[in-house]
């Protein structure tokens, strides 16, 4: 029987949340932008080998609209979420600066202590347009997202991803799965 893990995709509008989910589900990439209206739902079963043995996880994936006008709607979907994939756009510095408010909103409404958050630096395929460097990302995470001073790698993992090429999309979900299992079994 699979462990059911409710997870949310969070971040500003146009950072690529829906495209990352579609890539993960094997639906490919579309360059056409269609904003998520409220929320969307998908699920995927995975199998992981971990220090706790063979584990099956069913991810319940909630894709939540990033536009401010959907703020009151999003709050209802956070309830019971054990993890989140927090997405920003490597070509949009404002989307990085807004991560702290996304974590606060999620933490205030999930109702789950010690949830797992993975940060995805998306659009890594746009090499000539990237305006945020890895040191800037790591500095921002340490200064703004790690309030208790724990090491960034242990507390918040981050991956550079591309919804277009699929870079690190599966790895991010596997990392999320392993982190969830570690919290459940420790």
Jot down its keywords.
single chain, about 190 residues, alpha/beta, Rossmann fold, 7 helices, 6 strands, about 35% helix
Kindly report the oligomeric state of this protein: single chain
Tell me the radius of gyration: 15 Å
CATH class: Alpha Beta
Spatial strand arrangement across the major sheet: 2-3-1-4-5-6
Number of domains: 1
For the termini, the CA-CA separation is: 20 Å
Helix/strand/pairing category = alpha/beta
Helical content class: 25-40%
Number of helices: 7
Elements, N to C (H/E): EHEEHEHHEHHEH
Mean pLDDT, as a whole number? 87
Percentage of residues in strands: 25-35%
Walk me through what this model shows:
The protein is α/β, with parallel strands linked by helices. It has 7 helices and 6 strands. The protein has a single domain (3-185), classed as P-loop containing nucleotide triphosphate hydrolases (Rossmann fold). A 6-stranded mixed β-sheet has the order 2-3-1-4-5-6. Helix 2 crosses helix 4 (99-110). The longest helix is centred in the last third of the chain and has 17 residues, at 169-185.
Summarize the structure.
The protein has seven helices and six strands. It has helices spanning 17-24, 71-78, 93-97, 99-110, 134-145, 152-155, 169-185; strands at residues 3-10, 39-50, 53-64, 83-89, 116-122, 157-160. The chain is 35% helix and 27% strand.
